[in-house]
Design goal:
287 residues; 8-stranded antiparallel beta sheet; 5-stranded antiparallel beta sheet; 7 helices; globular
Length: 287
């Protein structure tokens, strides 16, 4: 599908994410640009906490993420990434996901999460560069319900009565318990379908994006996350480093945060950030 009627400077976008090889619609390229995006573009909601509002206009998303070298949450990162894939020549379909609430155990409403599906040589792949710490680094096959291993993590996509459920199997080496992450259908959507939920996540006390200022980025050995007034370093388990997920947390002073964001995440804000880390109110309506 065509995400925007305006042409994208794909070369500049690819340089932004550190991808320097030829960009052609192949599975190897899809996997590479997916990983490059996650390693280069933060998952963040700092616009919400620095006096701005996120708008789902492809040109605005491009300017923010590519020109200003910022990041975004799912509607921004996946919205723009889907446009990039379309420009490269992939067959892209936007999908609506519903995230499982870790507090209530219930799912959010439709259009709670934006993801995309790429159809390549008759096979379908789930892409998601906008889900933070629980996300997968490489596209997942939609052609199997079997196990799909990525480093220390194991994922599967289970289908039940037309609904697909993305699940993962713990964080530590040897963990066997399955946890539901989000559910989705394969019904094609448009970017404008997500506008209402994008506004909800910027204004509802039931949304993590309203309640907590955050910025997170994947690293080769783990993840670095700023939230509220903390900097959290997560190191993924390996056979060499041991089977336990290691996490360290550092308390930050308000005046330290802008420097940390610039140094660690490459994020420079145009307006002062108001750090926030409030409890999330369970939503009154659950799905």
């Amino acid at each position: 599908m065509k995400i925007s009627s305006v042409e994208m400077d794909t070369e500049k976008y690819l340089l932004r994410i550190g991808y320097v090889a030829p960009a052609e619609p192949t599975l190897d390229v899809l996997r590479s640009v997916h990983a490059c995006h996650l390693l280069s573009v933060p998952f963040e909601n700092l616009t919400v906490h620095s006096g701005g509002r996120v708008q789902l206009d492809p040109q605005l998303l491009y300017d923010k993420i590519v020109n200003q070298r910022r990041g975004g949450f799912c509607f921004e990162n996946n919205g723009l990434f889907s446009w990039l894939l379309s420009e490269i020549g992939f067959e892209v379909t936007l999908l609506s996901g519903q995230v499982r609430n870790s507090i209530t155990g219930r799912y959010g409403p439709p259009f709670d999460h934006l993801i995309s599906m790429v159809t390549l040589e008759g096979r379908r792949w789930l892409c998601d560069v906008g889900f933070g710490g629980s996300g997968f680094s490489s596209p997942l096959s939609l052609e199997t319900s079997g196990l799909q291993e990525q480093g220390h993590r194991v994922y599967r996509i289970r289908e039940d009565k037309g609904m697909c459920f993305l699940e993962w199997q713990g964080e530590g080496v040897g963990d066997v318990e399955w946890t539901e992450i989000y559910k989705f259908t394969l019904e094609p959507r448009r970017l404008e379908d997500f506008v209402e939920m994008c506004q909800y996540h910027q204004s509802s006390p039931s949304s993590i994006f309203f309640c907590k200022s955050l910025c997170s980025i994947m690293k080769p050995a783990g993840r670095l996350t700023y939230i509220g007034r903390k900097l959290i370093t997560t190191t993924f388990p390996t056979e060499e480093r041991g089977s336990v997920l290691k996490t360290t947390s550092e308390e930050l002073k308000d005046e330290e945060i802008p420097g940390i964001l610039a140094e660690k995440f490459g994020v420079v804000l145009n307006s002062p950030l108001v750090p926030k880390d409030e409890a999330i109110t369970p939503p009154p309506v659950m799905y």
